[in-house]
Structures are given as structure tokens and as C-alpha cells.
């Protein structure tokens, strides 16, 4: 999997992982505009929870990848082929996980995802 473009500097990635994610991860499954992804580590098998900002679309889970495609949570769910997401307090299983590369027209994706594809990759998955 190619890394793809990212829009956030590396220092911001470290800041987010160390400070911001721990503050938001517990509230994310209940806040509008947020979700919590539960995934297992590729090597450790340990369970992790990551807050994300999905885009609304019926039957699909769509997340723009401003931090690139080599983030641990992206690599973990691709390796597993599935994950659990909690959106507005409800748990959903996602599968058929794909990375749409920058430059792809993103036909059928929400407007913000199509606009994001001009610069960065987008993750899509089916909500089972």
C-alpha cells in the first residue's frame, strides 16, 4: 500500500496521538461528526480504539485520510479486513475496506470525499 499524500505535518500527528486522541476517544462514539474505530494490532493483537471524523453516507463508512494511509489504525483494519465502528452510540461492523487514491474521481462518494480526493486518499468500507 502506498503511503499517499497527507496534509498534516508529522509533529501534529504526534501531538494528536499523544494528547488529542486520548481526550476524544471516549466521547467520539456519541458525538455528531465523530466515530470510534475498534481494531486489533497487526503484530500485538492488542485492541485499540481510535477517534475519526467519518463523512455521512448511507450504508458506507467514509473517512478522509489527512494523516496518510500509513497510520496504524488504517493498516490494522486493512490487515484484518474488518473492524467495529461506534457511531452515535451504535456499534456497526465494517468490511470491504478500500483506499481510494488521490486523483480518483470518487464516483458515488459524498461531496467532501470527492473534493478531498484532489489531494489525499479516502478510506471507504461497507457498513454491515
Descriptive notes:
The protein is α+β, with helices and mostly antiparallel strands and 128 residues long. Helix content is 23%, strand content 31%. It contains three helices and six strands. A six-stranded antiparallel sheet has the order 2-1-4-5-6-3, covered by helices on one side. The longest helix has 15 residues, at 10-24. The mean pLDDT is 89.
Count the beta strands: 6
How much β-strand is present in the residues?
25-35%
Low-confidence stretches: none
Average pLDDT figure: 89
What layout of secondary structure does this protein have?
Blueprint: H1 10-24, E1 35-40, E2 47-52, E3 60-64, H2 72-80, E4 82-87, E5 90-100, H3 111-116, E6 122-127
Antiparallel strand pairs: 1-2, 1-4, 3-6, 4-5, 5-6
Summarize the structure.
With 128 residues, this protein is an alpha+beta fold. The protein has 3 helices and 6 strands; from the N terminus they run αβββαββαβ.
Characteristics of this structure?
single chain, 31% strand, 128 residues, alpha+beta, 3 helices
Amino acid at each position: 500500500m502506498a503511503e499517499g499524500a497527507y496534509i498534516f505535518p508529522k509533529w501534529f500527528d504526534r501531538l494528536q496521538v499523544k494528547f488529542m486522541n486520548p481526550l476524544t476517544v471516549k466521547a467520539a462514539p456519541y458525538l455528531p461528526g465523530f466515530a470510534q474505530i475498534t481494531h486489533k494490532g497487526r503484530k500485538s493483537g492488542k485492541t485499540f480504539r481510535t477517534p475519526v471524523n467519518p463523512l455521512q453516507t448511507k450504508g458506507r463508512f467514509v473517512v478522509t485520510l489527512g494523516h496518510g494511509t500509513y497510520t496504524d489504525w488504517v493498516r490494522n483494519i486493512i490487515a484484518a479486513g474488518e473492524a467495529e465502528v461506534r457511531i452515535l452510540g451504535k456499534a456497526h461492523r465494517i468490511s470491504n475496506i478500500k483506499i481510494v487514491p488521490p486523483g480518483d474521481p470518487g464516483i458515488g462518494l459524498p461531496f467532501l470525499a470527492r473534493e478531498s480526493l484532489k489531494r489525499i486518499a479516502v478510506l471507504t468500507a461497507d457498513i454491515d
